[in-house]
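Reading a protein record of the kind used here takes little practice once its layout is understood. Each number in the token line that follows is a code from a learned vocabulary of backbone shapes. One such record is shown here in full, so that the layout can be seen directly:
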Amino acid sequence: MTPERPRGADAIPGAVVPPRTPKAEGGALYAALDLGTNSCRMLVARPRGSQFVVVDSFSKTVQLGTGLEASGRLSRESMARTVQALRICQRKFEKHGVRRMRLVATEACRRARNARDFIREVRAETGLVLEIIPPEEEARLAVISCAPLVAPRTEQLLVVDIGGGSTELVWIDLSAVPRTQRARALMGLRKGFAAREDAAHAPRVLDWISVPLGVATLKDQFVDVEDDAARFALMSWFFEEKLAGFSTYAEGPPREGFQVIGTSGTITTVAATWLGLKRYDRSKVDGLSMTSAQIDKVVREYLALGPEGRRCDPRIGRDRHALIMSGAAILQAVLRIWPTERLSVADRGLREGLLYALMSADGVLDEAG
């Protein structure tokens, strides 16, 4: 199966977030860092036309949220691992002479009682200033980063961002937006999800939710369940219960013009498995269109493999095997409620949203591109 990529999938228009660091000069490099519950991810990029070119990247599983569910605090061991990873990022920033950057932390730092102490420690040890962002901004940046994957025929859009410590869902009505402008119009959400009364042809966010369960935190909830299949079923139904307050939960999906975009390591791993990739290839995964039935087939294969089989499967990878079933449980719960014939796989997320935001704020992106 070959990837299906919507037209203009690489074009990123619009402004997003106000600048927080000195404005970069033309041709300068930008950096974005996403510190989550499980991973530390960083990109260094240069604007080019309506998009950007990645100059350097870094991703490390740091498990910052280990033990957080039980203690409410970040452990000394997890903080030490994370600081070590952040030192690598800091050296890369220095190497490339990056002056314009935004470095954010999400759910683990939102929940931990000692998060502020950790932020101060990071600054003292590395010189990096981390910013803890609220769930709405995390959800908004995910939507903005995925905007190029929105098909012109899409009228109802569900964006699902499965993280390590939380999962964000955003339901957007695009029916009032001209078809050729739907992807671009999502950039108008840069100032928040509240609808503007003067914007008759703007996208409307019908509802959004941040569930404090991601691949790491959901897994921790059921570590005492030994049976693999039973644990998976419990995780999936437990997550679905948390969606009961989402306004579109009882309505189900519209039949026409409905699109789901999923962004997370879980979804890209499922896509890579479906394609049979033993070595991950972003160009084949990002923008791939999958059906609920195809995703369900991959999940059943994961269950048949069992824990040891998943650990040894090169399509899953050793960094992902312990978390793939909790992520798959979240994904299956979402698709059980809103089945679709076309879920768009997005290998993009918070880092990309941050970069688009910074570059757009500086006016270095070609919005006509």
